[in-house]
């Protein structure tokens, strides 16, 4: 790793996999700081559009991309072969299908997940999925987490990201690669805790949205978020008991941004449910993916052998997957809060 041509950033052989909002935001950041960014997306028309007009036609369309530094393609093998560090930013529900095209090994790569979800059928977080299915050593796995909406990256509003890996050098290299005028970065070794926090905060954001849609006010939302923080802490402590400060920005910070922000996909999805939309109609309304919808179901399988009280996740499950009345379920949940 060294300075890039303008001497202002770093150079890592790095690539981003994904064509949505977060992948686009990460490519924008990395092309500020790196000479070269590989970028895979599945949509050939979008690739042509980006090369010609320097904008993603579907996501963060206002962002002008520095395409002279970006190698954008639908050829996943090419992107993976060229890179040492690969960031995955495909919604968890589509990760396995996206990887079907991959024929080159990942074992010798440094694999970072920017995905905040659980892999369907496998019922594991993304880091574990790459370890189990692609034989990526745990030391080569990292995650990029923290309270950061792609839309605010597009606006270059100051944001903070946490790069976690059990190999300090990889976390630190990624943190340097992502740091720019509007992104501050820090490192961590808590790859499990930060990933689970990001999965859970999406479910709690759905709950916040549902309650907002039902007409609950700020006073109640604050109590919901306090209870969600405790639920998150109980869960993470149980699945990966190490010393951590749950009030850190990759844990509580991410919960707060997703529960309160106007940009939150999960909160928006939940708000629609609270207002009476069906799951199907809420999905059709959104051009984007609310990860919490999938996580609500999958976290149940992850925790089935664990004795952890998770009243908020259970309430969201009842509403989304058992068709229970949101008003009644949230009223019953509210009785359990303190
Ligand atoms: N958007 C953010 O601000 C943000 C921030 C941090 C992390 N993340 C995480 O990044 C990941 C990607 O989220 P996003 O916000 O970029 O998603 P998005 O909703 O912006 O984009 C959806 C992506 O999924 C693809 N897709 C949609 N339907 C598909 C299908 N049927 N098969 C295959 N692909 C399909 C689309 O082509 C697009 O690339 C998620 O895990 C999310 O939690 C998002
Ligand atoms: O708030 P959401 O649901 O759009 O999630 C996006 C990011 O995870 C926020 O950090």
Automatic annotation (TrEMBL):
Which principal EC class is assigned to this enzyme? oxidoreductase
| Keyword Lipid biosynthesis carried by entry | yes
Ranges for domain Glycerol-3-phosphate dehydrogenase NAD-dependent N-terminal: 13-170
Question: Which GO terms label this protein's molecular function in UniProt?
Answer: glycerol-3-phosphate dehydrogenase [NAD(P)+] activity; NAD binding
Ranges for domain Glycerol-3-phosphate dehydrogenase NAD-dependent C-terminal: 190-330
The record's section on Pfam families has: NAD_Gly3P_dh_C (PF07479), NAD_Gly3P_dh_N (PF01210)
Q: What are its GO cellular component terms?
A: cytosol
Could you give a single Gene Ontology term from the biological process aspect?
A: glycerol-3-phosphate catabolic process
Q: EC number(s) for this protein?
A: 1.1.1.94
Q: Which residues bind NADPH?
A: 21-22, 42, 59, 116, 150, 265, 289, 291
* Localisation: Cytoplasm
User: So where does substrate get bound?
Assistant: 116, 265-266
What are the record keywords, sorted? Cytoplasm, Lipid biosynthesis, Lipid metabolism, NAD, NADP, Nucleotide-binding, Oxidoreductase, Phospholipid biosynthesis, Phospholipid metabolism
> For binding sn-glycerol 3-phosphate, which residues are annotated in this chain's numbering?
116, 146, 201, 254, 264-266
Quick check: keyword DNA-binding in the entry?
no
Q: What does this protein do?
A: Catalyzes the reduction of the glycolytic intermediate dihydroxyacetone phosphate (DHAP) to sn-glycerol 3-phosphate (G3P), the key precursor for phospholipid synthesis.
Describe the family membership recorded for this protein in Swiss-Prot or TrEMBL: Belongs to the NAD-dependent glycerol-3-phosphate dehydrogenase family.
Q: What is this protein called?
A: Glycerol-3-phosphate dehydrogenase [NAD(P)+]
Naturally occurring in which organism (per UniProt): Phaeocystidibacter luteus
What gene does the UniProt entry assign to this protein? gpsA
